[in-house]
Write a structure and sequence with these properties.
This protein is an alpha/beta fold and about 325 residues long. The protein is built from ten helices and 15 strands. Helix content is about 30%, strand content about 25%. The strands form three sheets. Strands 3, 4, 5, 6, 7, 14 and 15 form a seven-stranded mixed beta sheet that branches. Strand 9, helix 5 (about 170-175) and strand 10 (about 185) form a beta-alpha-beta unit. Helix 3 (about 115-130) packs across helix 4 (about 145-160). The longest helix has 20 residues, at about 265-285. The protein starts with a strand and ends with a strand.
């Protein structure tokens, strides 16, 4: 089968053996894939958790059809339209654990379905399970114009947040954040953004920040969070190291929690997917929770898809059809 593989000379489409499902695995005939920021690093040879390196089939998000079942796989049957996440997505066939997928709603095509699994699982966990958002609270999403950021704002709004703030350093994308739930859009590269947040919250700061940026905004986040507020760190787009004001952190008594899928067990991931199904799946099926598709590329043009992502001018998801 054809797959997008990282090799000694970089990533390219290659012929590899079709995988065989074992245990609780499902073999998926992939029809469409969503690109994610982690894919760009792995395409350059970087590791993402335990994944990466020469011989790695790239990609982590897909939609398609069940082609074959492992002996212990449950909850799906051959021919079902499904979407999910996991390694080796950029291929004609991929494997998925039966607990790490969703049934694709009948009112979605494969391209639309491929935009959702990572965003839904990541941000339901960050905003609801870990972030503990409650109706009437205020929420700031750092890096809100990314696919997962747009989903985070929508989930916060769905759960009853009274004030949703999104950040983006791009003026065009800031101007569109209101379409996806933002009451206020701020530029996190402008030092005055904290003042805007404090003004919007009567000087108190927000109840919850979901931070995909970190790095240089870490101390600003502390200043923009209310006393006894919460910060959930899900990313490092602003860098992995930075100065941190421990005194401000202590003085404001902020709960600062880091989350990632890279170190979760399969049992933990299954539970996250189960929580999405239980809590917000009706909003997915009704299309209340959805993501815009910025551009669709054919599998043979996957390098162009990555160039488009790395230009960093898109809003929403970049999709590759297989």
């Amino acid at each position: 089968m054809k797959a997008y593989v990282y090799g000694p000379e970089g990533a390219r489409i290659s012929d590899v053996a079709q995988p065989k499902p074992k245990g609780t695995q499902v073999l998926v005939r992939v029809r469409a894939c969503g690109l994610n920021r982690a894919d760009t690093g792995m395409r350059k040879g970087h590791a993402h958790g335990a994944a990466g390196g020469v011989g790695t089939v790239l990609g982590m998000e897909w939609a398609g059809e069940v082609a074959e079942l492992g002996p212990d796989a449950k909850g799906v049957k051959i021919g079902d339209r499904i979407m999910g996440s996991g390694g080796a997505a950029f291929a004609e066939y991929t494997l998925a654990d039966h607990g790490r997928l969703f049934h694709a709603p009948s009112n979605m095509n494969f391209e639309e379905a491929a935009t959702l699994p990572v965003a839904l699982a990541t941000m339901h966990n960050a905003v609801v399970t870990v972030g503990g958002v409650q109706a009437g609270q205020s929420v700031l999403i750092q890096g809100a114009s990314s696919g997962v950021g747009l989903m985070a704002m929508q989930i916060a709004r769905l759960k009853g947040a009274k004030l949703v703030i999104g950040s983006s350093t791009d003026a065009y994308r800031r101007g569109r954040l209101r379409e996806y739930g933002a009451d206020l859009a701020v530029d996190s590269s402008d030092p005055k953004w904290v003042d805007e947040v404090l003004k919007a919250t009567n000087g108190e700061g927000v109840d919850l920040i979901v931070d995909q940026v970190s790095g240089k905004v870490a101390n600003q986040n502390l200043a923009a969070t209310k006393v006894k507020g919460r910060i959930v760190n899900v990313g490092r787009l602003g860098g992995t190291h930075a100065d941190f004001n421990f005194d401000l952190h202590a003085a404001r008594r902020i709960d600062y929690v880091g989350v990632t899928f890279r170190t979760r067990t399969i049992e933990e991931v299954r539970e996250i997917f189960a929580e999405v199904r239980k809590d917000i799946w009706g909003a997915v099926e009704s299309r209340k929770l959805q993501l815009p598709i910025d551009k669709v590329f054919a599998f043979g043009d996957i390098d162009q898809a990555f160039a488009h992502m790395e230009a960093n001018k898109h809003l929403g998801k970049i999709v590759v059809t297989v």
